[in-house]
Amino acid sequence: MRDWKKYVREQLPPGLFRGESSAELEEEIANHLEDAYAEALARGRTEAEAEAQALAEVEDWARLAADMLRTRKGAAPPPAGEHMESVEAALRRRGRRGIRMADLLQELRFTLRRLRRTPGFTAVVLLTLGLGIGATTAVFSVVKGVLLDPLPYEDADQLVSVWNAAPAMGEEQLPQSLAVNAIYEDEARVFQDVGVWYAQLVPTLSQGTPEELSSISVTDGTLRALRVRPLLGRLFTREDVRSGSPLTVILSHRYWVDHMGADPNVLGRTVVVFDNPFQVIGVMPRGFRFVDRDPDLYLPFRYNRAGLTVSNFVYNSLARLRPGVSTETALADMTRLVFLAPERYPGGLTAEKLKEIGGKPVLHPLKEDLVGGVRSVLWVVLGGVAIILLVACANVANLLLVRSEVGSRAVAIQSALGAGRGRLAARYLAESGTLGVLGGTLGLGVAYGGIALLRAVGPAELPRLQDVALSPPVLLFAIIVSAVIGLTVGLLPLARASASSPSVALNEGRRGFSTGRTRSRARDSLVVAQLALALVLLVGS
Question: How many CB atoms neighbour CB 58 within 10 A?
Answer without folding.
Answer: 19
